[in-house]
Amino acid sequence: MKSVSGLSGGNARAVFVAGLCIVLLAVFRVLRAAYLPELPNFSPVSAVAVCGAFLIPGVLGWLIPLGALMVSDLLLALVLGYPAVSGAQLVVWGTILALVGFARLAGRGGFSPVRYFGSVLGGGVIFYLVTNAASWIANPAYPRGLGGLWMSLTTGLPGFPPTWMFFRNSLVSDFLFAVLLLAVWALASRTAPRALQSAA
What we know:
The protein is mainly alpha-helical. It has one domain (about 10-200). It is built from eight helices and no strands. Helix 2 (about 45-55) packs parallel to helix 7 (about 165-190).
């Protein structure tokens, strides 16, 4: 996949800045969970995967978003006191890996705002559907059948915020981060194409 800057591994500054933004976002995920629990899931997981894959060329487009998310997940487990590795966590990591691959394919035709933001939206929806369906399958508190699946996608379990709220917060944070990262990338990349600069 070509980088959106049209460089073959060049423009180290833009790659560094994009990677730094992704790492800082991973730190934000941990701090938000520890100090702002009233904002459930305001954590742009799918945007990190999609935007990193879209904007960072080569193998780094896989390693930086995947590494940042996995390390932040392990830190979240430490901070919040749940198991660091579980079946549910493996599903999350597998979904993130799929989103990176999805974004790499979407970016093969070059950058366009429609591809970029469409991938962010598609990634957020896929992440929500897959992880909530996995919760429905794995958690015996959910009723079996389509009613239980619908419950996992809308109201969630009693005593917790409804899952639609998690989805809303996730999408809002995804788009905020996607816009921010695009703007930072365009400013850092002297050779960013006109379409990228105008979109940012």
